[in-house]
Amino acid sequence: MNSFSLNHIALSVKDVNESILFYQKVFKCKEIQNTASNSKTRWLSFSDNRQLHLIPRPNFEIKVNKAVHFALSTKDFDEFITHLINLKINFSDWKDESNKVFIRQDGIKQVYFQDPNGYWIEVNNDV
């Protein structure tokens, strides 16, 4: 059977510059070269070399809900929560309780927040 690994996530964004700054500020992503085309799509790399591709669509209506999200894990979960607080980024648990960390039945901590385009991001400590 084939094995697979995550290569990248692609998101349509209204303002690619604003989105680049958000992901660099929150996740310390590094901008990398878009090797696929000469388009205005910009690529970022997480610390594990997985990529986030931000595709400018200034006139595109972005519809989101919390059930459609991507999740990132960190061993420094509590430090990351402090980072969000320092950046004044509101986060919540699954039930939308503001600034609350949720602890799942399996003991994993998680929070949710949105990027500038409204995309939901989960961060947890399932490493």
TrEMBL record:
Residues 5-126 form the VOC domain. PANTHER family: GLYOXALASE_BLEOMYCIN RESISTANCE PROTEIN_DIOXYGENASE (PTHR36113:SF1), LYASE, PUTATIVE-RELATED-RELATED (PTHR36113). This is VOC family protein. It comes from Polaribacter marinivivus.
